[in-house]
Each structure stands twice: as C-alpha cells, then as structure tokens.
Design a protein that fits this description.
- By secondary structure, the chain is an alpha/beta fold.
- The protein has two domains: 124 residues, Rossmann fold; 96 residues, 3-Layer(aba) Sandwich (Rossmann fold), CATH 3.40.50.1000.
- It contains ten helices and 15 strands.
- The strands form four sheets. It has a six-stranded parallel sheet with strand order 5-4-1-13-14-15. A five-stranded parallel sheet has the order 7-6-8-9-12, sandwiched between helices.
- α1 packs across α10, α3 runs parallel beside α4 and α5 packs across α6.
- The longest helix is centred in the N-terminal third of the chain and has 12 residues.
- The model has no long low-confidence stretch (mean pLDDT 94).
Amino acid sequence: MLDFNEKKGFMCDMDGVLYHGNALLPGVAEFIEWLKEEKKEYLFLTNNSGCTPRELQQKLERMGVEVSEEHFYTSALATAAFLKDQAPGCSVYAIGEAGLFNALYDAGITMNDIDPDYVVVGESKLYSMDTLTRATNLVLGGAKLIGANPDITTPLENGIAPACRALVVPIEMTTGEKAYYCGKPNPLMMRTGLRHLGCHSAEAVMVGDRMDTDVISGLESGMSTVLVLSGVSTRETLKTYAYRPSVVLDGVGDIARMARRQRAGL
C-alpha cells in the first residue's frame, strides 16, 4: 500500500479532481488542508489551456479554497515554454482563450494570421468554421500544428464538453498533418512539474482522473499514481488499460484520510 506520508511532493490534476465546472468536489478542502499541514510540496496541473494561473487561483478562492498562484501550471504554459525553446521569437496563429494567449505573449511569441511558423490550438469558445478554415489553410501553407493538450473531453457539472484534441482533429484530418501535443502525458510537462516541486520522481505522486493522461504520465515519469473516480474514469474503464495506478480512490479527500490513518498505525 502506498504510504502518502513518505512522499514529498504531489502533482494533482484539476478538472474532475478538484472541481467539475464551478462546483468544488467533496474532500478537496480537506486534501489541501492536509498538504499545507504536512508541508508537502504541491502543484496543480491542468491540461485545460483556457485559464491563467491567477484565474485558477481566483476560481478556487471563490469556491472557498486558498491556494497561492505559484501552485498552478497549465498546458498553455507548457506550450509556450516548448515554442520558446524550439523557436525563440516565432510567430503563431492561435485558437484559444486568455490563458493560452497570455502564456504565448509572455514567452515573446507574436500573433500572425498570414504566414505564421505555427498554428497553436487550445480550448476555445470562439472556435468556429472560420477559425478552423484559416488554421487548416495555414497548415497546408507550411505552418506546423501544435495542440496544447491531447484531451478529447473535459468534465462539466452536468456532463462533458469537447476539449482540445477534439478541436485539433478536424485540422489533422483535413491536412493530413499530425499535431504535436504539449500537455499531459507529454514528459516535458511532467519534468517541469517535478522541477517546480524540487522532487525526484520517486518522491512524488501524480493524482488524476484520467488513465490516458494523468496516470500514464505519472507512471512513465517514475512517480506513484493515484486514480480518483470523481471525474472521467470509472472502475469499468480501468479494466481496458494494460497498466494500473498505484491506488484507486473515490476522491482526493481519501488521500488525507488514508495518510492520517497510516500515521496513526491503523
């Protein structure tokens, strides 16, 4: 059994783990209180590229949970960091929300809808036939295709919504070009997370609700993994994968409760 008290750092997904839409999930406040009490290093990772770290901090604050801004890292930041490393000062045609645009601007990347080096796609409420058509033709014209993350869906309070990959696939199918995805389970995002935590992978735990992004990214990075059933995955979907998480729990509140029982020797 995984002893959470022995672990130094925790990386935790957000959508389907901490909240659904604007609804905080049960046990989240208890889990965050435990992280603070035990002085654990922690980082909340999200493949959703739409929000900035400050907006995510404010979102949790509105739900009654206090977490400072430096504890958030998004696929938008991972995408901007990748492009800055690969092609400093490049230009992009971007489809996305404030989180993606802010990250790109902060990395010194400019917007260009005529002859960009890259087409970058994240979650976007403004995605339309016009933006899809422009992105498709720019890729056909030589721009490289980047997806902020490979998630097909994201959980809502009363269902699901199409996520980044669902928006990228029509461009891939139309152009015949495959996108490079920067978010989980890309090891680049996980290595950045471990550097933020100041942890070796053996000292860290990855917590998430998706087998195909959260669990596989933690597993391949050498971390212990926790699958929570508060989001996308179920015990039935778990059976379809060749790999397994270290622990399966109903929600993150169970981590704090298990850790306290383990410390008490129960």
